[in-house]
C-alpha cells in the first residue's frame, strides 16, 4: 500500500460523512439536477435538454434515478460516489508529491463549502475537477501504456461532463508536451477529448443541425462568449449563492466570506516557491487550473461557484505544499497562528455550507407543498407543467415540463392548449405577472409562494382549447435556489 493511502482514505470518508450528516438530510432537488435526472428516470418524463448541456452526469445519476424519484436517493448515491472519487483522484498524486502534501490538498479541497454542497448533487463540475486532477497526474508520470490510458480516460470523463472544459484543460497539457518535445503525449490528449465529446457532437448533428449550430445556440443561452470580467460576480457568489445571474445588482454584504479566495493565490505562489525539486508538477497543476478558469472568469458575465471547482482541486496541491512547508519550518508561534487561521477558514466554510444546505431543505418543503396543492386541483400524471419553475414542479409531480418560448421553448401556445384535451395542463405564473394571451381565459388558483417569489398562481384550462387568442408568452426565468 502506497504511503499516504490510509490518511487519504480517512479524508475521503470524512468528506462523505459530512455530506451525509449535514447536506443530504431533507435536501430538495436543483433545477439543473431535475433536468439531468429526468433524462434517465422511469418516474418523470425527460425535461428539455438545452444546447450547452452534456449527458455525462446523467450516466452517473442513472442507478439512483432508476430506483426512486426522491432526491434523497440521488444525494446518498452521489455522496458515496464523490467520496470514492476524491480518494481515487488524489491517490494518483501520491507517487508525484509527498504524501503529506497530497493528503492536505485533498483535505483542503474537500473542506470547501462548494465541494461539500455539490458532492451529493447530480451536477458535472465536481466530476470535471476529479478528471482534471487525474489527467494532470497521469501526464506527469513516466510515459507508459498505463499512464497514457489513464490520461485519455480522465480527459474523456471531463469531455463527457463538459466538452468545453476538456478543451481548456488539454491546452496547457498539450503546450507542456510540445515544450518537453514529447509529442507522443498529444495522442492520448486528443483521443480522450475526442472520445468524451463524441456523444455531444453526434447529438449536435441529430438535434441541432450540426456542431456549429449547437455551439452558436449554446453561446446564446449562456449570454454569448466574449470578453467579460466575472471576478466580481464570483466574489459575490462566495456568500453561498449557487447562481449569480445577473450579479451586478447583488450587494457584497459579507466580504469576510471571500477572504480565502484572496489567500489562495498567495498560498499557491508560496507553494511553488518552496517546492524545490517538485516545482514542475505544481506549476503544471497551476497552469491547468488557470486555463480551466478562463471561460468562467473572462468569457461569461455571470457566476456560479461550482464553475471553479476544477481550478480549486488543482490549486489545492500547491497550496497544500505551502502549508506543509510552513508547519515544518516555521517557529511554533507562527505555526500556531496558521492553525488558528485554518480553523477560522473551516468555520467560515461550515457557516456558508449550513446556509446553502438549509436553502435546499426549504426547496424540498416548498416544492412538495406546491405539488400537493396542484394535486388537489387535479394535476396528476400524465400531466404537463409550464411557466415558472416548471422543471422542478413537474419533477415533484411526475409530470412533463414544456415551455412556450425562452431558451427552453419546446412547444407553442396552440400545442400546449391542445395538450389539455388529453391530460391536465397547468401554467405557473409568479410575482403577480398576468398570464400570456393564450391563457387569459384559464382558471387561476393561488398557490403558496415558492422560494424567491412573492406570489404564485396556477392557471388551468377550463376545457379543451380551440385555437383562439394568440400572443407571445412571458419569458420565464428559472434559477437555482
Short précis:
The protein has 18 helices and five strands. The protein is mainly alpha-helical and 481 residues long.
Describe, in plain words, how this protein is organized in 3D.
With 481 residues, the protein is mainly α. Helix content is 60%, strand content 5%. The protein has helices at 5-23, 31-38, 56-67, 71-91, 99-111, 113-119, 125-140, 145-161, 163-179, 186-207, 211-221, 231-237, 259-274, 279-299, 309-329, 332-376, 390-397, 413-419, and strands spanning 384-387, 400-401, 425-430, 443-447, 456-460. The chain is globular and about 75 Å long. The two termini are 43 Å apart. Residues 467-481 have low confidence and may be disordered.
Mean pLDDT: 92
The tally of beta strands, per DSSP, is: 5
Proportion of strand residues: under 5%
Query: SSE order, as H and E?
Result: HHHHHHHHHHHHHHHHEHEHEEE
The structural class is mainly alpha
Largest sheet: 5 strands, mixed
Largest sheet: spatial strand order: 2-1-3-5-4
How far apart the termini lie comes to 43 Å
Tally of separate helices: 18
General shape: globular
